[in-house]
Design goal:
Layout (H helix, E strand, L loop, with lengths): L2 H12 L5 H14 L19 H6 L26 H5 L15 H12 L5 H11 L4 H4 L10 H7 L3 H13 L11
Length: about 180
């Protein structure tokens, strides 16, 4: 989905004045002019907010086995509740960390587009990846709370990518979102 397409569909879906038939017709015309493209490489594809097969293959999802504290993937399975040497040698100040995908290639490109290029429509896709990586923490939690940005970064970016991810994650997981709860 191109940056303009997300804006266009948001305007159309929020407008109560435009009847559904007219809105669908306008969306069809818009898609003829601006067809859906891969979120990573901008090749034309059939669905909005998706990846082409080549970019999809480049995503390295972190699956078990991985360190139970740092989420670092292991090459082979060492059994349940295994902790990496890094977590033992230098224990972190948190209980647990979990990532959905390795921060390389297409995944890195998408993260940078979300954070630095105002591509907020990517947050929905990434939130679904986060939910896919859930090993019980999201389903066991009471609510979703985004981490606030420093005020200078917020002014520079004009939005909080953590809040965007949290909003979509909360909706997909059917959990309440408590935005503005944490202060920086």
């Amino acid at each position: 989905m191109g940056a303009g397409e997300g804006l266009f569909s948001g305007v159309l879906s929020k407008s109560a004045v435009v009847p559904r038939v007219a809105r669908d017709a306008l969306r069809s015309v818009f898609r003829m002019i601006y067809p859906p493209t891969c979120a990573a490489c901008t090749r034309m594809i059939g669905a909005e907010g998706a990846l082409c097969p080549e970019c999809w293959r480049d995503i390295v999802f972190i699956e078990r086995p991985y360190c139970e504290i740092l989420g670092i993937p292991f090459v082979r399975d060492h059994g349940e509740n295994i902790v990496s040497a890094e977590a033992i040698a230098d224990p972190p100040p948190f209980d647990r960390l979990r990532a959905a995908a390795s921060h390389q290639g297409v995944a890195r490109k998408l993260v940078h587009r979300l954070k630095y290029q105002d591509r907020t429509e990517l947050a929905r896709l990434m939130a679904l990846w986060m939910l896919r990586a859930d090993d019980g923490a999201v389903s066991a939690c009471d609510c979703i709370v985004p981490v606030p940005l420093h005020c200078y970064r917020f002014l520079r970016r004009r939005f909080n990518q953590s809040a965007e991810l949290a909003r979509h994650l909360a909706r997909a997981a059917d959990k309440p979102l408590l935005a503005g709860t944490l202060l920086r």
